[in-house]
Q: What sequence folds into this?
């Protein structure tokens, strides 16, 4: 879990840098290219009209967001779980200028052992978001903790009104991960539950739709953190937890490495990305992401013997 804590700190530092630099690069249409099928030129006219209409809606949406951005919804204090003398209570939903929205947690260790409490999955309005949370609490001690709901994840998932938060906690004796205790999922409903965002933006080019898994390519970001990335919408209606990765990635006919691993619980969705390393692109003199080919690996639950590997999927992001 020390690794997870370090990763959390790195991501937090990255967010601070991004916040200081501003988010204009992420919304700059010049750095994004829509994903299309390899043989969809006949649909280009209607697609252009749809994109123009979508851009208009996005502008209106941004204006609406500025006009309606108000108070953060509230939650009622509730005990999340009590196990082996460890008690975790969700105290309130709050926000801070730098870190963004967070759940204030009180972790009480009334046992005679040191425990670590972590998070396996964090879901807001059925959207999987980053779950980097860990708390070390010594025997007989308490700790006030913040579980952050990253604004970048909420925005990517199209979430403006936080209505429901699902948390999958786990705990173990400190420095002994082999003795993990999994906690039943905790559901927290906010005061905005009745008006929460319920329909995710699944627009884009459908890459895969089988076995209860739907993958949609949304766009290529030419200016992402790692270099360039392919944004994906992943939906799971398989009845099981799905873990999705990818292999054999090629860009413009050249083999490259891609960072992608997405865990999506049943009846949930995720906005994730295949991150392409700038060093690979430079080595192959790739200045623009035009044609992409990839295989997806889909593993259900923890059944490594039942992994589905798709055929090569080709798609285009030509301007």
A:
């Amino acid at each position: 879990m020390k690794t997870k804590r370090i990763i959390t700190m790195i991501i937090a530092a990255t967010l601070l840098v991004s916040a200081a630099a501003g988010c204009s690069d992420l919304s700059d249409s010049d750095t994004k290219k829509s994903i299309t099928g390899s043989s969809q030129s006949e649909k280009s006219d209607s697609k252009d009209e749809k994109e123009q209409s979508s851009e208009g809606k996005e502008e209106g949406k941004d204006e609406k967001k500025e006009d309606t951005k108000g108070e953060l919804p509230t939650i009622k204090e509730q005990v999340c779980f009590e196990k082996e003398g460890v008690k975790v209570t969700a105290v309130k939903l709050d926000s801070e200028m730098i870190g963004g929205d967070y759940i204030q947690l009180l972790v009480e260790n009334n046992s005679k052992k040191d425990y670590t409490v972590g998070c396996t999955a964090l879901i807001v309005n059925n959207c999987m978001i980053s779950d980097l949370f860990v708390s070390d609490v010594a025997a007989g001690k308490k700790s006030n903790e913040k579980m952050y709901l990253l604004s970048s994840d909420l925005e990517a998932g199209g979430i403006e009104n936080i209505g429901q938060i699902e948390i999958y906690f786990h705990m173990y004796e400190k420095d002994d991960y082999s003795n993990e205790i999994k906690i039943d999922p905790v559901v927290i409903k906010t005061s905005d539950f009745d008006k929460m965002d319920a329909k995710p933006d699944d627009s884009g080019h459908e890459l895969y739709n089988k076995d209860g898994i739907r993958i949609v390519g949304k766009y290529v970001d030419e200016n992402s953190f790692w270099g360039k990335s392919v944004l994906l919408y992943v939906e799971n209606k398989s009845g099981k937890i799905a873990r999705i990765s990818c292999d054999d990635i090629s860009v413009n006919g050249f083999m490259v490495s891609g960072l992608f691993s997405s865990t999506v619980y049943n009846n949930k969705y995720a906005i994730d990305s295949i991150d392409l390393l700038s060093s690979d692109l430079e080595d192959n003199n790739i200045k623009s992401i035009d044609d992409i080919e990839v295989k997806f690996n889909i593993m259900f639950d923890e059944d490594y013997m039942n992994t589905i590997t798709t055929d090569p999927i080709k798609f285009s992001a030509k301007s």
User: Anything to note?
Assistant: Residues 90 and 105 are 5 Å apart (CA to CA). The first helix runs from residue 2 to 21. The first strand starts at residue 32 and ends at 34.
